[in-house]
Amino acid sequence: MSKKKKLTTSAGSPIPNNQKSITAGHPGPVLMQDYQLIEKLAHQNRERIPERVVHAKGWGAFGTFTVTNDISKYTKAKVFSKVGKKTKVLSRFSTVAGEKGAADTERDVRGFSLKFYTEEGNWDMVGNNTPVFFVRDGYKFPDFIHTQKRHPKTNLRSNTAMWDFWSLSPESLHQVTILMSDRGLPKSPMHMNGYGSHTYSFWNDKGERYWIKFHFKTQQGHDFYTNEEAAKVTGQTREKYQEELYGAIERGDYPKWDVKVQIMPEAEAEKTPYNPFDLTKVWPHGDYPLIDVGVLELNENPSNYFQYVENAAYSPSNIIPGIGFSPDKMLQARIFSYADAHRYRLGTHYESLPPNQPISEVNHYHKDGAMRFTENFNENPDAYYEPNSFNGPIEDLSAQEPPMKISGDIRRYEEQDKMGNYQQAGDLFRLFDDAQRKRLFSNIADAMEGVPKEIIDRQLVHFDKADPKYGKGVREALKKK
Fold first, then answer.
1. Is 80 exceeded by the pLDDT of residue 208?
2. Which residue among the candidates 122, 128, 378, 421 is catalytic per the annotation?
3. Dihedral over Cα of 14, 20, 26, 28: its sign
């Protein structure tokens, strides 16, 4: 048996007694000078950090991304530079609406986030298990999330608020259809796809830009719970996803996903009958087929959940040379909002926490602030501003993206998509077989419990516009409730 280590305060001072407080006589009172007691109590009060505003309940693991197909002609990003190249990844899966203590097996969109520790810096792929979302403009995102959280008076989740917002936001129908389908309640993180959802961009050494959609296709196959099955599971455990993911990796049954991309030449975005930067739309695979890129494998459980999963901070703003953004309005909003949320939740220097530290060299001129726990990144203390004459860090022109063409006036635009809000939702509905449609209708009817008739009638019109059989099926399911 190894020699036991000495118990100390957080400053390294030896602790002679960790069982009894210092008191003035027996039985007391306790003295303020018992700094060891105060430190212990004060730290306990701070063992929890504010939970995420969304995606509060999550499960994560480390893994490896391996390149299996050369796509270097599209991007200069070194993470894709050669077949066989491996990159360490930290994953986090999550529900959107539930709080930290919510049950894993609730019908909800699942977050699907990956942090790639590349030699050029951290690249974060912050997506979901669906290729689309409820809204296309970040201006509407806070209002949507309010409908998913607790009512300010009842402190209960509100079906009325949810369907009221969706019925007044017809662009949500595509995502609502996915959410209420079988894929809205996967059995585990391993049994769902992941998507970048947004349109991103690749750019290469020639300065050519391509628009990109990322896909992570599960090798475990899709599996799901019905509402009734999920209710039984929730009655047995609220931690089903954590149990499944952690247990699979501990057994050596490492989950895997095939990583693929859709690629659109930059100029073609002006020719599509839909807005390729609209987060409520998908790109037809017949026009832009999936191209193999690599394999994601999760193979290591974190040694400390709080340290590596709760402290993990993902943001679309973390990109590397060869990967860029697009005019996607939701993406543009998230570039700001995610990093800003981390500064609030974890502190100014959240990127210095272990799960967020890049493996590449870090040099910047950010100074001081709360929770500064690193030395100056510049070895020369005189180089604390830029430009300077003291050999401080300088710009790297090789990371400069090619210019992105824009046109039009500065204004708040109404959506001008020729495809509209209903075609793709209807196309998805028409892909479902009779059993899938029956479960879709039943799930929607369950979720409409207690919702005023006026709101239900408004939503039924959207179902009708997607496909008359869609609206008819929901009406029949509602009659049975």
1. yes
2. 128
3. positive
Query: Among residues 104, 372, 369, which one has the least CA distance to residue 240?
Result: 104
Helix or strand holding residue 405 (H, E): none
Catalytic residue among 55, 174, 198, 215: 55
Mean pLDDT value across residues 149-160: 96
Residue 416 exposure: Cα atoms within 13 Å on the Cβ side: 4
pTM score, two decimals? 0.93
Q: How does pLDDT run across 390-429, given as a tens digit for each residue? A: 888 888 888 888 988 888 887 788 877 888 999 999 999 9
Each residue's pLDDT tens digit, 275-325: 999 999 999 999 999 999 999 999 999 999 999 999 999 999 999 999 999
pLDDT greater than 70 at residue 215: yes
Nearest to 335 by CA among 345, 346, 321, 324: 324
And the tokens for 168? 């007044």
Task: Considering only residues 297 and 32, tell me which one the structure prediction assigns the higher pLDDT.
Answer: 297
Q: Which of 293, 363, 316 is nearest to 123 (CA)?
A: 316
For the record, the structure tokens of 180 come out as: 């209420």
Range 246-260 average pLDDT: 98
332-335, Cβ contacts within 8 angstroms, sequence gap of 24 or more: 332/138, 333/137, 333/138, 333/139, 333/141, 334/126, 334/138, 334/198
Look up tokens 């502190």; give the residue: 347
Domains of the chain: 16-47 (no CATH), 58-132+188-359 (2.40.180.10), 423-479 (no CATH)
Sign of CA dihedral 245, 249, 250, 251: positive
C-alpha 103/C-alpha 236 separation (Å) is 10
227 is catalytic: no
Active site residue 129: no
